[in-house]
Design goal:
Elements (H helix, E strand, L loop, with lengths): L1 H11 L23 E7 L2 H14 L3 H17 L3 E9 L16 E9 L6 H16 L6 H6 L11 E4 L4 H8 L21 E6 L5 E7 L5 H20 L13 H10 L7 H10 L25 H7 L13
Parallel strand pairs: 2-4, 4-5
Antiparallel strand pairs: 1-6, 2-3, 5-6
Helix pairs in contact: 2-7, 3-4
């Protein structure tokens, strides 16, 4: 069985030769200390319900829907159609001898790979991820360190994790204090600590909650807020059109677009400077708007004007645009 698990994960990650990262502006490098912070965000009931309908119509779980959306966001951040991140899984696999006599929580972290082709409909991506999840489920007890050892990236294979809580812990705890109980619980909070500098935790419920836990020495709070905005913006587009092409999905929010196109539209920089930037840019664009973009800005003034550049170039489709602070 161990050999089967080894070969499965080897095939699963075959051809993946990069590292999937989140934009960061913190001064510390990964592993150089940890100062924990979090951002809580609650989706309204309407958006939560519409997301559930998208999942039901595609015959996938909410976990797969959220994993697919997060994969698209990561593809934009990394300028790649092939990304990998970690997902926490739990269970009590029958193949472990004596499992019926063991107590405690059995969890593991496994890689999730989201790979897309040009113009792939999002609802097709979800079904692909569901099939991939079902196949991986048979081998998800294989230790992460063994999976990492098979790759060129080793321990850098996964930079962060996503956790989908299958049980709405906070809601159930709050209900304990209701009715005829002798006590009342006014507030409940979920606290988890991992070895990763960024954790995205999804809490199901009538109003789904997103919990962003992060190391402030690596990730800036304004960056995390923008990531939150991008994720919700993707959700809003998908519930309107689940069959939308993954390339048509926009990461940049309308507010960010206005910020780029209007606030700094009068900054004057010689065209030769734009041409030089254009020639030197290394990040390949995906979709309608390249995202080399916001995460290096963090509220600072732009030294180039995208709007001015656009006025001097007749067609930006497929172009590479670099914005520096």
């Amino acid at each position: 069985m161990k050999q089967l698990r080894y070969h499965y994960w080897s095939r699963y990650l075959a051809g993946y030769d990069q590292q999937t990262l989140l934009p960061q502006v913190g001064e510390a490098s990964i592993g150089e200390g940890y100062l924990s912070e979090k951002l809580n965000y609650t989706l309204d009931r309407e958006l939560t319900g519409r997301l559930e309908k998208v999942a039901r119509d595609a015959h996938v779980t909410m976990n797969i829907l959220l994993q697919s959306i997060w994969g698209i966001a990561l593809q934009r951040y990394n300028g790649s159609r092939d990304v990998v991140y970690g997902s926490v899984v739990s269970g009590r696999p029958a193949e472990i001898p004596g499992i019926d006599r063991m107590i405690g929580l059995f969890i593991n972290t496994i890689p999730v790979r989201v790979k897309t082709e040009e113009n792939l409909p999002f609802n097709v991506l979800m079904k692909q991820q569901q099939e991939q999840y079902m196949a991986s489920h048979m081998y998800d007890t294989y230790p992460l360190f063994e999976i990492q050892a098979q790759t060129d990236q080793k321990q850098d294979l996964i930079s962060h994790i996503m956790v989908f809580e299958n049980y709405p812990v906070e809601e159930e705890v709050e209900r304990l204090g209701g009715g005829e109980a002798a006590f009342e619980i006014e507030d409940a909070e979920l606290l988890e600590q991992t070895n990763y500098d960024f954790n995205l935790i999804v809490l199901p419920g009538e109003e789904m909650k997103l919990l962003f836990q992060y190391n402030t020495l690596v990730y800036d709070s304004s960056n995390i807020e923008r990531i939150r905005g991008h994720l919700v913006h993707l959700m809003e587009q998908i519930v309107k059109n689940p069959g939308i092409s993954v390339d048509a999905l926009e990461l940049v929010t309308p507010q960010e677009r206005d910020h780029i196109l209007n606030i700094w539209k009068d900054i004057a920089v010689p065209y030769e400077h734009y041409a030089e930037l254009h020639a030197q840019a290394q990040t390949a664009p995906i979709g309608n708007l390249t995202y080399t973009l916001w995460m290096t800005i963090s509220g600072c003034c732009l030294s180039v004007s995208l709007a001015s550049y656009a006025s001097q170039v007749s067609d930006l489709r497929g172009s590479i645009i670099t914005i520096l602070n």
